[in-house]
Amino acid sequence: MSSPNKHVVFDVVGTCISYENFFEAIESRLGPKLKTHFVNSRLLGYAWIEASEKEYTYLSLSGKYVPFFSILGSIFYRTLGKAGIAEPRELATDADLEFLLTAFRGLKAQEGLVECFDKLRKAGFTVWALTAGDTKRVSGYLEAAGASLPGENFVSCDTIGVGKPHPDCYKYVLDKFDKEGLDVWFAAAHMWDASAARRCGFKGAWASFWEKEACLDIFGEMEVQAMDLPGLADGIVGYAAKKKRQQERELLAEEKDITTDNGNDEASRIQQKATFRDEDELATFEVQHQQEVEEDAEEPEERRITGTPELDVGSSSSSIVPYSSAENEYTLTKRLDMEEQTGGRLPKSYFKQSTRNSHGIF
């Protein structure tokens, strides 16, 4: 029996792997010096990472691919200068830089990583990774966390030769999957990453623990949003189950050979029932439907038209006046058109008038 064609591709650094011990290393090594310049260690670390990602992306887009870690080391002193430190090389040394880069090489797993992968695999998903980092370093992060992936399931942009979020990165991974019955997701704690993958054909799953604010106005909606990695896995698995229930309902409707031709109310009702999300919605619908049935039963029989141009109302006192020779051509045409559109039954609004003038004009 073939395995399910269900896959979740993860960003790694910042999503599966936390930056926390990198920030702690900056504080322990440079914290007291930074404070004299009113520079926050965590904010410096964030600016350093973000600036490195920007330069990595811009170089890649310009046709010059440089590995991310090389850029991270190169722009350290520039980042210190942009933080307001007039003489960065007097505050920090190359030894300080190497200490911090060593901390970055030893990043630890994000809380709940192993649980997240386990939940997805138990639900039939294959787990993949797409990283801007180098294979040896980043796959080492996962291995140290007890969440290693098979080599064929780990993809580095170094191999592709272009960096995220270029569409070629995501398409490179998509091309590895059989398109028949494919259910494929991209999971990240970076909205720019998840949204870029989504535009290339993935479903998007975003965890908020890193960025906090989704900024949906610029990135757009995701199929799944969660606060942490286990919650992200739950959302992905639950989304698939929800889609499966919807497909089962559609299949049930097809098996009943439902048709809505000629205003088939019962068929329409069955189709509507198949779309309800829970029992409360279904119960509300059934009550409304029963009220409609009772209203129809109370409707005077003379209001039902058989398709002939005359109404046998049996009484001159009735508010409904039979067709007469005085009825002009326009009125007759209008009534016949309405009969045709309603299948021989005129709407109640057609009979609202209690009187009719002597010329038969409605």
UniProtKB/TrEMBL annotation:
Bias kind Low complexity: ranges: 315-325
The UniProt record lists the keyword Hydrolase: yes
InterPro entries tied to this protein: HAD-like_sf, HAD-SF_hydro_IA, HAD_sf, PGP-like_dom2, S-2-haloacid_dehalogenase
UniProt keyword list: Hydrolase
Region annotation Disordered: where it falls in the sequence: 288-362
GO MF term (any one): phosphatase activity
UniProt feature, compositional bias: Polar residues: 351-362
Keyword Hydrolase carried by entry: yes
Full protein name: 2-haloalkanoic acid dehalogenase
Source organism of this protein record: Venturia inaequalis
